[in-house]
Amino acid sequence: xxxxxxxxxxxxxxxxxxxxxxxxxxxxxxxxxxxxxxxxxxxxxxxxxxxxxxxxxxxxxxxxxxxxxxxxxxxxxxxxxxxxxxxxxxxxxxxxxxxxxxxxxxxxxxxxxxxxxxxxxxxxxxxxxxxxxxxxxxxxxxxx
Length: 144
Prior knowledge:
Layout: H1 2-15, H2 26-42, H3 46-49, H4 55-62, H5 65-68, E1 71-78, E2 82-83, E3 87-98, E4 105-114, E5 123-125, H6 128-136
Antiparallel strand pairs: 1-3, 2-3, 3-4, 4-5
């Protein structure tokens, strides 16, 4: 029985199903979650993106929906994800413009991701106000 289990584990490792550096798939889960969140922001769907935000910041995050409504994000660049045991961080640069203007700008969001339980559920501590300010052409200190 042990031999069969060992062979199955080795076979999974060789097949690429389990990473020896990330056997629980936490990094893969974060990469997928982070990509989904970033895509929702890119398309202006703040309400759906809120499901990925830590609960204590969700209300403030949802208040940004009105500001995001007059912005269009045209593209984004995801930086290198820095992983920790229960947290991770990544900087995302969004490119976009205010609908009433024809000037594209870029706004940088440093995303802090946390994992509370033992599963692979990741939540973000967003800094989306900095992106809104940058796309609107406001100085970073003009946070609302």
